Predict the 3D structure of the following.
Amino acid sequence: MTKKILVTGGAGYIGSHTCIALHEAGYDIVVYDNLSNSSSEAINRVSRLIGQPIEFIEGDIRDAESLRQVFSAHKFFGVIHFAGLKAVGESVAKPLKYYDNNVSGTITLLEVMSEYDVKNLVFSSSATVYGDPETLPIDESSKRSCTNPYGQSKLTVEHILEDLAVSNTSWNLIPLRYFNPVGAHSSGQIGEDPNDIPNNLMPYISQVAVGKLAKLNIFGNDYPTVDGTGVRDFIHVTDLAQGHVAALNYLKDQSSSVGFLPINLGTGKGTSVVELVTAFSKVSGQDIPYQFTDRRAGDIASCYASADKAKSLLGWQAKLSINEMCQDSWRWQSMNPNGYKDKV
Ligand code: NAD
Ligand code: UDP
C-alpha cells in the first residue's frame, strides 16, 4: 500500500511540524500550500531537518485543476488537510473570505479526492466547534455550536464530512479537534510565526518575553476558575503532530471503512492564563509584565478535553508538559525574534 500523503497547508505552523513526524514515521509527503499565511522558508527548514528535499507545490485548494495535476502525478493513500484561515477576528470582519477558503476550498478538495478515489482524510477541526461547553472535560459526543464565522466554517466542514460518510460508505473521514496548540520543534528551527500582532496567548507571551511587545493584556480575571483567568488545554505541537501520524496509522490498519470519526487532540488538563505566564517566565528567565483588562468578546471560562477516545482508538496520548511547551516556544522565539524573516 502506498504511504504517500498529501499535506494541504503543510507550510503552516501545525503542518510543518506534522511533516517532520510523518517523515520520521516512514510516510512520503507532498506539501500543497498557497503560502497565504506561511513562508517557503518553513519548507526549507523542514527539508533541512529531515535531511532531504520536500516535494512542495504552491497552489490553492480552491483550484481544482491544480489539485487534479497533483493527484494525477501521485498515488496518495490519503490527505491531511490543514489548509485554512484561522483568525477569529478577521473571520467576523470578512465572513465570505472564510467560508470561501475553508468551506468551498474543502469541497473542491473532496471532489478531486473523489475523482481520484482517494478516500482517506484527516481534517484540522477545532475545540471551537464545542462552543461554550455544558460539561468538562469535553468528549466527542458533546453538543456542537459556534458563534463566529471561523468556528462555523469548521463546524460546516464537519457536517459536510458527516453527510459524505453517509452518502458513500467508502470514505474514512477523521476530523481531529485540536485544543490549544503551542510550542515549537525542539531544534528551535520551526515554530509559530504570526504575520501581525499575535491574537493567541502563547505567541503574545513569547513576544513580550523577547522584548517585541511591552506588556501582555490578560483578558478577564473574574472567570469562575482557579485564579479568575481563562483555563485552556494547551497541547505541544509535537504531540499534536504525532496525533496525525496515529490517525493515519489507524486508517491503514482498518479492514472496513470508519466513516466519520471525530477525535479530540488535547492533554485532558486545564491550565490558566496566569499559570502559563508564570511557567513561561520561570523557564525563560524573562520578566513578563502583564495587566488585567476586560474579558475578550466571545471567550469562554474553561475548555479542556477528554482525551480518552484518542488513547483507546489511536493509542495516542500527549506526553509533553507545560514547561516543555514554554521552553520550546521560548527557544523558537529567542532564536528567531522575527520568525522566518530571520534566516539561519
Ligand atoms: P497556519 O495558518 O500556520 O497554517 C495553515 C496553512 O494553510 C498556511 O500555510 C496557509 O498558507 C495555508 N492555506 C490557507 N488557505 C489555503 C488555501 N486556500 N490553499 C492552500 N493553502 C492554504 O495555521 P495552523 O495553526 O498551522 O493551523 C492549521 C489548521 O489547523 C487550520 O485549518 C486551522 O484552522 C486549524 N486549527 C488551528 C488551531 C491553532 O490554534 N493553531 C487550533 C485548531 C484548529
Ligand atoms: N488571552 C489573553 N491575552 C491575550 C491572548 C489570549 O488573556 O493576549 C487569553 C484568552 O482570553 C483565553 C486564553 O488566553 O482565555 C487562550 O486564548 P487564545 O486566543 O490563545 O486561544 P482560544 O482558546 O481563545 O482559541
About this structure: The first strand starts at residue 4 and ends at 8. The two ends are 38 Å apart (CA to CA). The longest helix spans residues 95-115.
